[in-house]
Structures are given as C-alpha cells and as structure tokens.
Amino acid sequence: xxxxxxxxxxxxxxxxxxxxxxxxxxxxxxxxxxxxxxxxxxxxxxxxxxxxxxxxxxxxxxxxxxxxxxxxxxxxxxxxxxxxxxxxxxxxxxxxxxxxxxxxxxxxxxxxxxxxxxxxxxxxxxxxxxxxxxxxxxxxxxxxxxxxxxxxxxxxxxxxxxxxxxxxxxxxxxxxxxxxxxxxxxxxxxxxxxxxxxxxxxxxxxxxxxxxxxxxxxxxxxxxxxxxxxxxxxxxxxxxxxxxxxxxxxxxxxxxxxxxxxxxxxxxxxxxxxxxxxxxxxxxxxxxxxxxxxxxxxxxxxxxxxxxxxxxxxxxxxxxxxxxxxxxxxxxxxxxxxxxxxxxxxxxxxxxxxxxxxxxxxxxxxxxxxxxxxxxxxxxxxxxxxxxxxxxxxxxxxxxxxxxxxxxxxxxxxxxxxxxxxxxxxxx
Amino acid sequence: xxxxxxxxxxxxxxxxxxxxxxxxxxxxxxxxxxxxxxxxxxxxxxxxxxxxxxxxxxxxxxxxxxxxxxxxxxxxxxxxxxxxxxxxxxxxxxxxxxxxxxxxxxxxxxxxxxxxxxxxxxxxxxxxxxxxxxxxxxxxxxxxxxxxxxxxxxxxxxxxxxxxxxxxxxxxxxxxxxxxxxxxxxxxxxxxxxxxxxxxxxxxxxxxxxxxxxxxxxxxxxxxxxxxxxxxxxxxxxxxxxxxxxxxxxxxxxxxxxxxxxxxxxxxxxxxxxxxxxxxxxxxxxxxxxxxxxxxxxxxxxxxxxxxxxxxxxxxxxxxxxxxxxxxxxxxxxxxxxxxxxxxxxxxxxxxxxxxxxxxxxxxxxxxxxxxxxxxxxxxxxxxxxxxxxxxxxxxxxxxxxxxxxxxxxxxxxxxxxxxxxxxxxxx
Lengths: 428, 428
What we know:
The structure is a homodimer. With about 425 residues, chain A is an alpha/beta fold. The first copy, chain A, has three domains: about 5-135, Rossmann fold (3-Layer(aba) Sandwich); about 140-300 and about 325-335, Dihydrodipicolinate Reductase, domain 2, CATH 3.30.360; about 350-425, Alpha-Beta Plaits, CATH 3.30.70. In chain A, about 35% of the residues lie in helices and about 25% in strands. Chain A has helices at about 15-25, 25-35, 85-95, 105-125, 140-145, 160-175, 180-185, 195-200, 200-215, 235-245, 275-280, 305-320, 360-370, 400-415, and strands at about 5-10, 40-45, 60, 75-80, 100-105, 130, 155-160, 225, 245-255, 260-270, 285-290, 295-300, 350-355, 375-380, 390-395, 415-425. In chain A, the strands form two sheets. In chain A, strands 7, 8, 9, 10, 11, 12, 13, 14, 15 and 16 form a ten-stranded mixed beta sheet that branches. In chain A, strands 3-2-1-4-5-6 form a six-stranded parallel beta sheet, with helices on both faces. The longest helix of chain A has 18 residues, at about 105-125. The mean pLDDT of chain A is about 95. At the A-B interface, α1, α2, α5, β12 and α12 of A face α1, α2, α5, β12 and α12 of B. β12 of chain A pairs antiparallel with β12 of chain B, so a sheet runs across the interface.
C-alpha cells in the first residue's frame, strides 16, 4: 500500500463532522478506491470541548486553524471555517505556501478571491479544489471541468439555494405569502444568520460565478452577477405562472454571448414540464448545456452534513489518487477577463399589473408594448370585483432593455395601479 | 506547452466522426483544458472512401484496426468498432500490450470481458476507460467512481435504453399498442440490427452490470443480470399504472443486499412525481444513492454523435491530464466475486388480471394473496361489459418469491381469464 494522505481539518461544524464520519466509517473502502489510506491527523475548531456526534479525541488539536497549515504531518488541509476573509483565507494561503493541497467548501471566499487563490495554488504547485462549494453533494464541478471538457459550454443554469426553493415551493403548496414562509424557514433554522445571503440570492450568486469561471474559462466575476432575490415574488405570481404552465424559481443563468458574459441570479419562470420546473423543496439542480453533449441535468441535495461531506471527500480522494487539476479547470493565467454583458439575451417575459377598470386601459398597455417593439404571445384579464382589473401578459422575445422601456411607458399611461411585475421566462 | 497526446481512432461511424469533429473544432480549447494538445494521428474503419461529414484525409489510414495499436506515433487508442469479441477485443488487448491507453464505448465487450481487460490494463500500467459505454453523454462513470467515491453506494438505478423509453412513452402519448410503436421505431432507425438488444433489455443490462461493478467493487457479472424486456408491456398497463400515479419504465436496478448482489433490468412502475417517472422519449437517467450523499439524479442524452463523442473526449482529456484510474475504480485484483441474490428485495407489486364475472371470484383472488402472505394496498375492479372483469391490485411489500407463489395460487382458483400481469413497483 502507498503512503497515506494525511488530512488537517479546520472547522468541525456540520460538514467537518460529516467528513470525520466518512473517514472513520469507510477507511478501508476509501483506501481501496484511492490506492492509499486517507487519515485525519489534526483538527481545529472554535471549541475543543463542544459536544460532537463524532469522536475527535484521537486527532491532534490546534487552537489556531492556521497552525494546521504549518504541521509537517499534514499533506492536505480541508478548510470548512467559512467567511470570505479572515481565518479561512489565511489558512488557505498559508497551506498552499507550505506545500499543502487544499479542499474547501467556501464559496464566498472563492467568489471574491478565487483568481488570487488559484494563482497561489499554481505558484506553489499544489491543488485547490472546491466541489462542496457548489450545489452540495452534486458532483457538478467535476462534471463541468472534467466529464464535459470536450464541449464548448453554451449555458450553465441552476437552482442552487435550497432555502429559496423551499420557500417558493412551500408558498405554492400551502398557499401562504412570502413573509409567513420566510418566518417558518427562519424558525426551522433554514436561513443563514444574514438571511439576505439566501433570499437575496448572494449565496447562489457566489456559486453561479464559480460555475461560470469553469464553463467559460474566465476569471471569477461575482461583482457582475446580476442579483435579484425572491422577496418580491408573490403567491399571486406563483399561481398565475402555474396557470400558464410555469413554475417560478430563483434561477442562476450564465452564458457567453456576443455582447459579453451574462450572469444572472433572479426569479424566473421555467416550464413546469422541465426538471427545473418540477424541482420541489430544498433540492438543488444544475443544468449544463454543451455544444456536443446537449443538455445535462444534475439533481441532488444542495446542503447538509452527508451531501457536503461527500463532495469534500470526492476532492480529497481525487488528490489522493494523484489528480492535479487547475482550480478552475484551466491554468489561472489563461483565464480571461470577460466583459460583462450589459443587456441580457432576449427572452419571453411574464408581466403582471393591475389596471384601473376604465375603457381603453388595456388598449393603452397593449399600445405601450407595441411602441417598445414587444409583441404579445398571450394576454389574460382576470375577472374581478371593484375598480381594479388584474392583467397578465406573456410577451414574445424581448430584451431586458425593451422591457424596461415598456415598463416606463406603462407608468406614463396613467392607468396602472401600483407597480407592475416583470419576470423573465427562461427557455429550457 | 507539453507534448501532444496522439490518438488513433478505430471505427468512424456516428461516434467516431463525432470525436473527429470535436478534436477539429475545439483544438485550442481542449489544449488549454488538458494542458497539452490532443491530436488525431491515425484512423481505421471498414471503408476509407465512404462519404463522411468530417475530413479524415489528413490522418494516416490503417485498413486493419489492430495496426493502430502497433503504431509508435499513437499514445491512445479509441475503440469504436463495437461487438463483444472480434476486432474490438483484439485491438484493445494489443493496444494495452503495446503500452497504449484505451478509451472505448463498447459496453458489450466490457460486460463480457471487463475483468480480463481491466487486468490487462493494470498489468501493462495503462488506463482503460469507458464513460461513453453507459448512458451516452451523462458523465455517470466519473460521478460514481470519482465524485461519489466517499460513499458506500446503496443502489444504482437507471433508464439507460433510449429506444425502450421512447417506445413506452410513445405508446402512452399516442395510445398505440407495443407492436405498432415497435414498428415505428424500427422504421425511424432507432432499433439495433438485432432489436432484442434494445427491447429485450440486453443493451441496458450491459450498462447496469458495468455500473454495478464500480458501485460495489465487484467483478462485472452480466450473466446474473435478471433481464426482462418491454415486449409484454401493454398500453392497458401503462394507462392503469398512470391512473394510480405511476409510470412504467424499463428500469435497471443494482443493489448489494444481505443475500448478495441484486441486478435487475425489468419493466417497473415508478412514481410519476419522481424524475424517473417524468422521463420522456429517448433521454437517459441514472440515479445513484450513497450513504452520505443521498440520491443523485443525472439526466441527459443517452446516444447520438455529439453526446457519445463528448463522453469519449472526457475520458481522453482525463488521460491527457494524467488521471490514471483503475478501469472499475479499484484495482482489478481487489474486485470481489459477488454472489447473485436469488430473491429480489421486497417491493410493492402491481398485479393486473381478468376474472370470470361470477360470485366469489374476487374473494378467491384476495384469499390467494392472503395465503401467500401478501397484503393488499389498493384494489380496483373496473367497470366492464360481458363476462370478464378487469381487476387491478397494488400490494404491500412482498418478495418476488411470494408473488410467484400468489400467481400460482391465482391459477389454481380457476377464475382467471388469461395470464395475470405482475410488475414491480420500485420505491424511489
């Protein structure tokens, strides 16, 4: 048997303990698969005494996680501290400098410092991998950077925040408004300490930026991910969309267009017959489209002890086997700086508004659309009582600029009650 | 730039030409990803002059595919000839012996000779990979043997013959009997020259046997895959199953049980709400369940030029990058010989039969079930004209032995008209 791969684990929360459990439970199995034993040597966390569901007393302990990076008996550091800066970043930098490989689940750190860290790994001749940072247990980084490496990638899409998908599907199934389900999710512990990371789309936006870098060979560019959260999605929109055959999802989309790199994390309508439209609850899904392979759909748990630890161990076993890949699939120096696309690709749009119930109101809206160069696929005016008429329009393909123009014209008609809702329909 | 990886391609049918096109179209992209250029040096096929959709005149030509394995200017042989023996096997054996790596899409060859070829590859210190042999463009071999390598795999399932899934979904959508849709599929060119490879489940059974070997660390054992084709599935069963919330799929299932390795490729009912139940047309789906990761679902094109060539190129790029994995994820010598499970795990069953419409008929069937130790979940007797009453039963969990016993008791009641239908309901 070859020499063991010796791990230092920083962070013993849910995922860290999940990794410990896998190594403890499957030592022999993993050694056969990896061609060498994989052993935990040392660990670090905020408290040594905390009650944990795995025995860590047999491992060396470091109060300072960065000390793991300096131990001569550690070959590979697993960073599960989290946070885009601070101890996590210091640990990864020190580990690489000291000739350790690194596996991390830290999407925020990579979304902000991915290029610098990838360069540091290459300069040190070490490997930095992050399967667990995107879509939990789904091996999507591997699929994209290895299995589909023969393809020019055309689009990467995904539902990558389980909490948001839970909220949206629960709103529909229970007929509850956003605020109520948000509160439920908070009480169930589904939300981050800063809930905006979830419902504002930031967490999912980090993941999308990482996927885009691999898909298009570009430097991670989280700052140019167009982010819209789910806070403005109403139960009415969810129901009306369903009525037209669509589901509303917080959908991330990255594509390279003639006008630059488009990265969006926004509520979108998707056909209810597509796997994306059928995705319920906290499950994640990533869709990869390549010029040769067509559309590949990957579905699985996006978070949790077992799934995330499974992804960490996939990276660890790769490294134990000797697989040395650049962090984003290509040498960091080759990654290009993509110009962000100012206008997103044309799409159909779902428009909902309330009109004053007076003669000519609908005609003015239809005219405004026509004046913006947008044609109508379907329009429905719903039955109502009182002076306000709910109207729903599905347009033919239009750019986000054209839609912005139309919304301004709607405003000028004077027949709108409140603000209209405009949601993109992503063709899948 | 590092030295190029030089390919010899044997077989220039759909997939071979797909590989040529990818190498020609994406040379620079692939070189960046692989860290070295990938070049085609020599090709071989049955006819040099055949009209092809890619220019092969720039490559050296060999009339005898095995000659590719002897060329000093070839590093890696791509075997796309097909067939479990003959030229394909001779080529792979010679290539390995001569120090070439091998990538193949040949499921029949590996299902029958996988162990010997894996041993030959290891003895020669070369790599033999076969992503394209299972589920076309879906990178499932990679997901199972690498991304999920930290898991004890609990079950692998899949719809892995697009033609069968096309036939079953077309029967339902068009309301046509099996024979008619089979004939349509034949005329559309969807069927193998020997259609039993498709509709008899043999092709999909080959794939299942390969997945099982990786999942459970066992020697490929195609002979013990329990095969039932789709020829006996009727439009009535498809409709009645739907009526109960199920879809009928040709589903492969492999699991390691206390009684041994269970491998089945049979028509099964799956819930219509699960991605397996929603799979339409020729698309493939593989479901992998691991103890840490839970359930991962992979969906994509299972055949065709682009998807299959994408899978071949994934393997080629892996090898160019230096990834050297045992053929089945563990050293061939470590793969165990699994005892085949004689009885499949307990499941709910769908039973359909026609009874003589006379007093006590249904009671006799219910009694027979009870005497076999099987309890009833749901039972429906459908309205009818004439002397024959259609009856549908969904049982609680029962073993295949118990069901066999019940079917014998049904026969003995004397109230059956024709043969009853018994289909397993796979819990997903």
